[in-house]
Amino acid sequence: MKRIGSPPRHLRARGLAVGLAGLTCLTACMPTTPVASPDAVGSAPAATAGTGSGVEVPAGFGSLRQDEVSLRVNRDAVAVQVTPLDEGILRLTAPDTYERLSRLGDRAGPGGRVFLVTVLTEAPGGAEFEPRNVRIESRGIVHRAEAIEPLTPGWGAGPLRQRSVERAVYRFPSGVDPSLDMVILFGNSRSRSWSDVLPRLDAERARVRARAGGGRSQISRPNFLIFR
C-alpha cells in the first residue's frame, strides 16, 4: 500500500498558480474599507495624481482585468499579487475594475507610489507571512514599503489561513516608477519582469484613445477568474 503524505512540490506549485488565478475574483468581492492594525507601518498612504506612464488617458474606456496589470510571485506556500494603483494604469482597466481600485488609492493619503498587495496560501495548515518581505526592485534599487495599510481583518494577525485572501495597500518611495521596468521581491523569490506587462499597457493606451475619440465607452467585461 502506498503511503499518502504531503503533495509533491510540483503539485503544490501548481496549486498556488491556480490560487493566484482566483485572486482577482476573491478580491473583487471583498470589502474595501481599511481595517486598523497594530502592524500598519506609518500613517495612511495614498496614490499620486501622476500616471506613472507619463501619459493621461480618460477613464471609462479601458478593458484590462486586474490580473493583466499585476505581477505575481510565489514563495513556499504563499502566493503574492501586486497591483499598481497608479492612475494612468488604472484608467486602462475595465470600468468596474477602475472604480473598485481607484477608491483604494483615493483613501491612501498623499505621496509615494501606491500598490495593492494581495496574498493567499493553499497550505492546509496555513502559512507564515511577513508583510515587510514584499519589496520592489526598480532601476536597480530595492525599495521597502514606507507605509502599509491593512484592508482585511486578518492582515498581520498571524499565519495566513488556507484560501483566506488578505489585502493591504503599500506605499513605496516615489523612486519606484511604474512606467519603467520593475520586479516584485518576496523573500528570495522574484516575479517576472514588469517589462513583460508594459507592451500590453501601451497597446491598451492606444485603444483607449481610439475609443475615446469615437465617444464609445468600453462595455465592462466580467472581471473575475475562478478556481479550476
List the helices and strands and how they pair.
Layout: H1 9-21, H2 23-28, E1 71-75, E2 78-84, H3 87-90, H4 95-106, E3 113-121, E4 134-138, E5 141-143, E6 147-150, E7 166-172, E8 182-186, E9 189-190, H5 198-213
Antiparallel strand pairs: 1-2, 2-3, 3-7, 4-5, 4-8, 6-7, 8-9
Report mean pLDDT, rounded to a whole number.
Answer: 79
**Given the helix and strand composition, which structural class is it?**
alpha+beta
| Strand residue percentage | 15-25%
- Terminus-to-terminus distance: 30 Å
Please outline the major beta sheet: 5 strands, antiparallel
Gyration radius, rounded = 18 Å
What is the count of β-strands?
9
* Count of structural domains: 1
Overall helicity: 10-25%
Residue stretches low in confidence (pLDDT < 50, at least 5 long) are 1-6, 24-53, 219-228
Task: Give short descriptive properties of this protein.
about 230 residues, alpha+beta, 5-stranded antiparallel β-sheet, 4-stranded antiparallel β-sheet, 5 helices, 9 strands, about 20% helix, about 20% strand, disordered N terminus, disordered C terminus
What does this structure look like?
The protein is of the alpha+beta class and 228 residues long. The protein has one domain (33-213). Helix content is 22%, strand content 21%. The relative contact order is 0.23. Residues 1-6, 24-53 and 219-228 have low confidence and may be disordered.
